[in-house]
Amino acid sequence: DLRKQARQLENELDLKLVSFSKLCTSYSSSRDGRRDRYSSDTTPLLNGSSQDRMFETMAVEIEQLLGKLTGINDKMAEYTNSAGVPSLNAALMHTLQRHRDILQDYTHEFHKTKTNFLAIRERENLLGSVRKDIESYKSGSGVNNRRTELFLKEHEHLRNSDRLIEETISIAMATKENMTSQRGMLKSIQSKMNTLANRFPAVNSLIQRINLRKRRDSFILGGVIGICTILLLLYAFH
Questions:
Q1: In terms of C-beta density within 10 A (0-12 exposed, 13-18 middle, 19 or more buried), how is residue 126 classed?
Q2: Is the N or the C terminus of the chain less surrounded, counting Cβ atoms within 10 Å?
Q3: 182/176 Cα distance (integer angstroms)
Q4: Does CATH place domain 1-30+45-141 in 1.20.58?
Q5: Domain boundaries defined on the chain
Q6: 201: enclosing H helix or E strand
Q7: Looking at the record, which segments are called Disordered (predicted)?
Q8: What is this structure's pTM?
Q9: How would DSSP label each residue in 137-160?
Q10: What CA–CA distance (Å, rounded) separates 2 from 75?
Q11: Eight-class DSSP state of 103
């Protein structure tokens, strides 16, 4: 009895889904034909037509049928799990799985068709709004058109200014990052030099001694040169 009910619901769903798909296709075709027929673009594309009402009605009916079929499948699953039914009845499990697959396919097909229909209707609404804007722009006076063109040019200038400012900011940020990186490298070198100086104090003392000896040698050499110069001057005057 549950299988008969499931098959009946599946047949109804199959017919409903075919009609639902045809409705979506005819909806798109009728809107395309209307756009080709009315070149003035003054007629709205969507005005709460009968197709929209049919779509809502059929969607509700299909959702109700899917809910009923889901309930039937749940009842069949309860029956296969009941105590009076052998747990290893492969035929029952296969039948239940087949009905579940059919339910899943119908559900997927319904949501796919519904999504496509809503996307087409949203696109038509958007196109209708755009066409109205274009028509209002074309039907405007010369002063309004000129004013609109000036506004568009000013908007374009503002966009170019924003783009230049963004490029300048990007260059400044890159320069800042490079300077920060160089600063980090210099700090690293300085810290390494300080570490070496602190690690080898004997080298520092040796360097200081060498500097002191160079300075002492410079003083001695300067004194010798001075004495020799004085002796030469005394010899020359005498």
A1: exposed
A2: C
A3: 10
A4: yes
A5: 1-30+45-141
A6: helix 201-237
A7: 28-49
A8: 0.46
A9: HHHS-HHHHHHHHHHHHHHHHHHH
A10: 8
A11: H
- Tokens 């519904």 belong to 114
> Could you give the CA distance from residue 9 to residue 69 in angstroms, rounded to a whole number?
6
Which phi and psi angles does 84 have, rounded to 5°? -80, -5
- Give the span between the Cα atoms of 97 and 220, in whole angstroms: 111
Tens digits of residue pLDDT in 140-179: 555 566 677 788 888 888 888 888 888 888 888 888 888 8
Please state, in angstroms and rounded to a whole number, the distance separating the CA atoms of residues 21 and 59. 11
Q: What is the pLDDT of residues 58-88, one digit of tens each?
A: 888 888 988 988 998 888 888 877 755 555 5
The whole-angstrom separation of Cα 171 and Cα 179 is 12
Instruction: Report the amino acid identity of residue 49.
Output: S
> Which band of pLDDT confidence, cut at 50, 70 and 90, is reported for residue 32?
low
Q: Residue 17 in contact with residue 113, Cβ under 8 Å?
A: yes
